[in-house]
Amino acid sequence: ARVFSPRRQQYVGKLKFASLEASQGSKKLIVATEKNVVAALNSRSGEILWRHVDKGTPEGAIDAMLIHGQDAITVSNAGRILRSWETNIGGLNWEMSLDTGSFQVASLVGLQDAVKYVAVLKKAAISLHYLSNGHQKWVEHLPERQEIIFNESTQYQLLYSHGTGVIYVLGIVPQSHLNILTFSVEDGEITKQVIRIAAPWLKRLNGMCGVVGEAVLVCVDTDTHSLYVCSLETEQEMKQIPLQSLDLEFADGFQPRILATQPSVIGASRTQFFLQLSPSHFSLLQYKHGLLSHLRDFQQAALVSFATTGEKTVAAVLTCRSELKLGSSDGLHAGSTLEDSRKQESLTCSNQTYNINLYLVETGQRLLDTTITFNLEQSGAKPQQLYIQVFLKKDDSVGYRALVQTEDHMLMFLQQPGKVVWSREESLAEVVSLEMVDLPLTGAQAELEGEFGKKADGLLGMFLKRLSSQLILLQAWTAHLWKMFYDARKPRSQIKNEINIDNLARDEFNLQKMMVMVTASGKLFGIESSSGTILWKQYLRNVRPGSSFKLMVQRTTAHFPHPPQCTLLVKDKETKMSFLYVFNPIFGKRSQVAPPVLKRPILQTLLLPIIDQDYAKVLLLIDDEYKVTAFPATKNVLRQLEEIAHSIFFYLVDAEQGKLSGFRLKRDLTTEESWEVIIPTEVQRIVTVKGKRSNEHVHSQGRVMGDRSVLYKSLNPNLLAVVTESTDTHHERTFIGIYLIDGVTGRIIHSSVQKKAKGPVHIVHSENWVVYQYWNTKARRNEFTVLELYEGTEQYNATAFSSLDRPILPQVLQQSYIFPSAISAMEATITERGITSRHLLIGLPSGAILSLPKALLDPRRPEIPTEQSREENLIPYSPDVQIHAERFINYNQTISRMRGIYTAPSGLESTCLVVAYGLDIYQTRVYPSKQFDVLKDDYDYVLISSVLFGLVFATMITKRLAQVKLLNRAWR
Question: What are the residue boundaries of the EMC1 first beta-propeller domain, all occurrences included (predicted)?
Fold first, then answer.
């Protein structure tokens, strides 16, 4: 058997900025991402060389990244932090705090053929810093002139310098005029009078304008279908150039963009620039010596980029091999209702095959042998970003590699003629939903299951079936023996244990599972748990950012020959509309079963224990009109629903109104409100509603006390834990509320208020206990509170539970503990039968996962130990819960920015499978009660076998001697 080792995959997130070294032997590329990460990737393997993770809040957002030599300059926290990184090892060269102000743009500044400074433009000031140490050379406030007519002040948005000792700052009063300021690099003095140029058609500078050549500003105007140009140094007005003179025109409703390039900050910009006329139409233009010329037209372009090596600058153009069309794709889309609400035009490439070509910017001529062809048919996503690494070969020809980022956050590093050097699935940096599914049976196991799963065919038929099953098992066993013999002759390094989707099979103890992950970008993954191998992936198009997801397993692999089935509910954040996506979690293929079209927003989903004729659990969907939709909705299912409708209850939460409502299902599948709890929103708001896990098993109904009596647990499967937080944020008046409410009757079982406490609150609800963590504002520390519910020493009804028949409230025991750290995530271990001791898995901000025995958070821990408490093995009460390093389950493999922990049972009662996810994904196994059901590694098989053989041999001899003795006695 293979030895299991915990696995961690690290990610950086969706790229925001990227820089590729311009040399053939370069080994790294520097990236900054939307996850506030600065990192270096190995350009040959895609692995992370080094990574720095900033705060996950907007304070850590990276606003700009500049590369010069071996230094990477980043601006973060809305322009308040300026940092320099050493790109080889990721060390911090220096860090500077800047004055507050709305960040606009940053740029390197050169002087006398050397880059010495970095300039940072804010809304009201510009500052210049030394590149070597970050010290501020000078700072100048920008003149604010309020325009009476437009009631708007000047918005400074552009910065330009090209090694001449001056910095140009461009500001705009929208639909009025343009201001050009000229600062001296040496002392920050304004060297010229402010140039004011009328531009009543100009709304903004970013995207609409660019600087080309020797400080010439080029802007685009959609109303007049013209380009406007002016020199930043000399001219006082803008010169209009109609695009009709070049036989070009803008697409209707499209905002054109200008893309210019400046290969070096100590030199002028290129006179060539791209003008985007429509989503798929780019033109390469040149403005030189006062003349605008059209170099080349790109009608089917998806992305364009400039790149420079030495003295050569090239333009890279990514095009679709077939025709690019406007409109929605034919791929996996978000259902008709959601699709109708989205009439945005988007580019689609029919065969998902793309070309990248290089062109000389001076002439627009295509360079021969520079085509890269790649296909995105497997993911179905569109390219979103293009970064080019250009280098000169030995024969002075141009070679290049390309980094492509798609809309599903996948990174592809390509080299000629189209080889994918490596790819990274960066959408896994934001997992939002996760389930573990059992792997399918092997062919032999499935054959055996099929034999016992079918109805009897008569004595002869069953005998023949058994015979064929045994022959198949014998064949499988022989093949297994042959493989073991064949592998034993090979060196260990040559034995391949590759896992692919074709040889997936459940192991003996069901330790390997399929992890089905849903990411925020709308991409689904099937990952084999023991190796971390991505076996399949599926991208759902037209899922907008911010959508919420709920993943449900309707049918497992236990019902051979029916395939397993998962259903994903996707809810749009803006329109509130939802759609269902049904798929096979083992192979990732879309199911043939057609889900219902959801025409109303869905408020609640229920996975019922009843199944249809194909063993799929029934999913109930409740919309905003409280109407019920069943999936699947066969006659058999509807009949079963009518029979058990009286026992189906559900709840709805309206956090804005502070209302919890309980409903019951009628026989005609309509709903009726049965209870309502109002939380006054002017005082407190609902933060979390937590129920119990449906797959949880409770082994012991009670606890044996020291006097040998039994304290029975209150095991209410319908119990809801509702957490509220005060709307008043003052540290003296803030509080946390906890309500335990029966989801069937609406009865409040218990309520308590934790004064001078605030969130974020992390809560675990399991069996008969609730553990929640909060921040104590008075003592300024993190605390745990544990609640346990007991019926007493007599059980009310031991055979069946009903929320409608519970006259006596349970006893609630409560205790609090001090925890020395904040918490990122919290979950409880779970096993197949619930025999194993429970542990709390606590994710810390440091990235460690602490496995804390639930016995330490026991409200029955006595302050003064007694004989009975010692008999129960109760630990004496101590308010401090210590963090011991030996309780960390991930050792030095920390998880950055942990958001959740998922636990699942395995086939071994002692083993719980754990997946922690955040910016990284970590998978391991924990053994809360040690491996009591597994033989140890040092188990002495030889000794035990020898003893057994000896006992058998001694028994045979003793038996023979006894027979001889009896015979001799009979002859006397």
Answer: 8-426
